[in-house]
Design the sequence.
């Protein structure tokens, strides 16, 4: 009986960790690779960016997210990725990188 409860609890914890890791990976790919806003985060900001809260991770993003504006290219220009409050990566988008 205790073994069954332990296995169910372990399966629940592993399932949660897999979902959390998947959500974090999708948000990371959206923000860093595709210059988009994270999908599974709560946004505090406007169409120029802001602070995005996820479960244990966060982003500070600035850029042009107004689809009607044609002043700047659409997407993030600056992305700061934090895990549990520690900065992991900072990305500054450049025009040279886009042309390649």
Sequence:
């Amino acid at each position: 009986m205790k073994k069954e409860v332990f296995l169910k609890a372990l399966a629940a914890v592993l399932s949660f960790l897999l979902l959390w890791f998947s959500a974090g990976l999708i948000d990371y790919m959206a923000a860093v690779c595709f210059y988009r806003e994270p999908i599974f985060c709560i946004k505090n900001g406007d169409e120029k960016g802001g602070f995005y809260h996820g479960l244990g991770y966060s982003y500070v993003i600035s850029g042009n997210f107004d689809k009607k504006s044609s002043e700047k290219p659409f997407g993030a220009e600056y992305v700061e990725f934090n895990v549990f409050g520690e900065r992991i990566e900072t990305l500054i988008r450049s025009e040279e990188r886009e042309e390649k």
The chain has one domain: 2-99. Residues 2-33 form the longest helix (32 residues). The beta strands are 42-46, 49-53, 57-64, 75-83, 86-92. The longest strand covers residues 75-83.
